Amino acid sequence: MFNNLRKRWRAGVVAIAALGLGLGAVVHTQGASAATWPSATGTVKLTATKAVSGTLDGGLKRYVGSGALGTGSQDEGQDPLFTLADGATLKNVIIGSPAADGVHCLGSCTISNVWWENVGEDAATFKGGSSAKYTVTGGGAKGADDKVFQHNGGGTLTVSGFAVSDFGKLYRSCGNCKTQYKRAVVLKNIEVTAPGSSLVGINSNFGDTATFSGITVIGDSSKKISICVTYKGNKTGAEPTKVATYKASTGGDGTNCKFTSANITYK
């Protein structure tokens, strides 16, 4: 209930501000980062999931859900705005609100200069096999009540030059999928703006790893945002059990959570 009310409040703020500032204006919600967000060159409404093979260059148009995709809630099982086939690239896209379940990568994929103005269920979900390579370069995301990046398949996700603000978790390795993998995430040159809960949640019992470098945290003087949280994942659908939490002051464990205090800068 609270999450849905929060989403509707954000959507109302964006809509009201857009009327006064014009369609191309970018509205910064609470916790907006210091990153420079692009202005939309137009708006495209999607009533059904758009399948991408090869490369889709959106020309910085704003894509929003409509009809069956017209929800900005945290409800599970929503359809995505985009599905990326193995090897596909999505670039120069602004995903507005409602965003449904964002982007699904069905195999290896590249997401470049994609901006989520108000994350729906998740910004992107990665579903490839154990050898899949996913790359997110540039872009940013705001307003994720829960997760930004959800890793359900296997393989390695590398995120670089990305900005995130007002979020729950930047990355979560699925804690209770029926098929589990050893997953890896690499975060490089990430700008994090409070409020937020944690950057990464991984399953230490399945051998997941998270590697951090060049992390800048803005507006978190009390250092509440956790850098890396480990869980005991399962295949039964049960809620995973938290194992350990690592902050910038402690550094990681060097095995699953790979960072030192030198990798985290506060502003």
UniProtKB/TrEMBL annotation:
GO terms for molecular function: pectate lyase activity. It is found in: Secreted. Its cofactor is Ca(2+). It catalyses: Eliminative cleavage of (1->4)-alpha-D-galacturonan to give oligosaccharides with 4-deoxy-alpha-D-galact-4-enuronosyl groups at their non-reducing ends. Keywords: Calcium, Lyase, Secreted, Signal. It comes from the Bacteria. Gene3D superfamilies: Single-stranded right-handed beta-helix, Pectin lyase-like (2.160.20.10). Its EC number is 4.2.2.2. The keyword Phosphoprotein does not apply. One of its GO terms (cellular component) is extracellular region. Residues 1-34 form the signal peptide. It is an enzyme of class 4 (lyase). InterPro entries: Pectate_lyase_PlyH/PlyE-like (IPR004898), Pectin_lyas_fold (IPR012334), Pectin_lyase_fold/virulence (IPR011050). GO terms for biological process: pectin catabolic process. Catalyzes the depolymerization of both polygalacturonate and pectins of methyl esterification degree from 22 to 89%, with an endo mode of action. In contrast to the majority of pectate lyases, displays high activity on highly methylated pectins. Belongs to the polysaccharide lyase 3 family. This is Pectate lyase.
